[in-house]
Structure formats: structure tokens, C-alpha cells
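Per your request, structure below.
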């Protein structure tokens, strides 16, 4: 194969390389957009400068409340009853810091065939960590379900440097039921 035939394939290889990056770019943008969405329940009045949101799930005999404070430290949280009585969580799990370099990019070179007539390929890849370990922005609070009572629950959240906010946690509203 001469130089002329190789040079003619160069624009085609560049086009293939550009088209190979499109799915990677779409996946990256989708993952980043998913990280930016707040949890379904928010206070009526947000604190100045950032958003607080929450979500609640019952798991066995516990109420698990996930609080997204955009990385600001949650100082206190409690469920507030109709009479003003507060139920503090039996467990609070603060945000877990992510390891440096959450996005990994790699370059690989491979060979196909034997001897000097084999073909070679160069590839790149982008890795985005996916999992259920939570986010470096969220705090988990766990309450005993028998003491929390039936939904909806009113969650009071105090974030460092900000007045407390109340968030109504109503699973029926999330699922569209009244």
C-alpha cells in the first residue's frame, strides 16, 4: 500500500473519530445534568445563595431522608410534629467526599494481526462513576418510622450559617396521587 492510498483515508478516519466522540459527549452531558437536579421536595422559601431539597423513603421500619444542601454542612435536622415537638434522627450520615478526579479519561493502543502487515487502532474512553452511594452534596437522616408517624412529614433543616427551613415531605405528592 502506497502513501497516496493512506493519505486518502485520513479525512475519513478523522470523521470516524469525531463521530465516535458524540455518544461520549451525550453521556457526559446527561450525567452532569442528572447531578444538577434537586431532590423532589423543597422549602417554600429557599435560603439566599443555594438550594436545599429533600426526599424520603421508608425502608422496613425506618424513614430515610436524603437532604441535598449543595455541599453545605447540615447542622441539625428533625421531624416537626403538629404540636411543635421535634423528633431527632437516630442516625445522620454526612456527605462522603468524592475521590479526586471523578472523571477518568484513558488512551489505548491495540494491534490486530501478526507481523508488519497488521493494522493498528488507537482508542480513547471516558469513564463516569455511576452508583447509589449518594453524592458529595447529600446528607442522610434516618428516623424510626413508628415515632415519625404517617406521611406527610415536616422536616426542619438547619444548614451552617443559614436560618432553618421547613420542607414538607409528602410521598403521595411525588407520585402524583392526592
Amino acid at each position: 500500500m502506497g502513501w497516496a492510498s493512506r493519505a486518502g483515508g485520513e479525512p475519513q478516519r478523522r470523521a470516524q473519530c469525531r463521530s465516535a466522540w458524540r455518544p461520549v459527549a451525550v453521556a457526559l452531558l446527561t450525567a452532569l445534568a442528572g447531578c444538577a437536579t434537586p431532590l423532589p421536595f423543597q422549602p417554600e422559601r429557599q435560603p439566599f445563595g443555594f438550594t436545599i431539597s429533600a426526599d424520603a423513603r421508608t425502608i422496613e421500619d425506618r424513614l430515610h431522608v436524603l437532604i441535598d444542601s449543595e455541599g453545605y454542612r447540615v447542622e441539625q435536622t428533625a421531624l416537626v410534629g403538629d404540636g411543635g415537638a421535634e423528633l431527632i434522627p437516630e442516625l445522620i450520615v454526612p456527605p462522603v467526599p468524592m475521590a479526586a478526579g471523578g472523571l477518568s479519561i484513558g488512551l489505548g493502543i491495540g494491534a490486530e494481526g501478526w507481523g508488519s502487515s497488521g493494522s493498528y487502532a488507537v482508542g480513547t474512553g471516558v469513564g463516569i462513576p455511576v452508583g447509589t452511594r449518594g453524592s458529595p452534596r447529600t446528607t442522610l437522616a434516618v428516623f424510626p418510622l413508628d415515632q415519625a408517624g404517617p406521611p406527610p412529614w415536616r422536616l426542619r433543616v438547619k444548614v451552617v450559617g443559614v436560618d432553618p427551613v421547613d420542607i414538607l415531605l409528602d410521598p403521595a405528592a411525588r407520585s402524583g396521587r392526592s
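Residues 3-174 form one domain.

Regards,
D.
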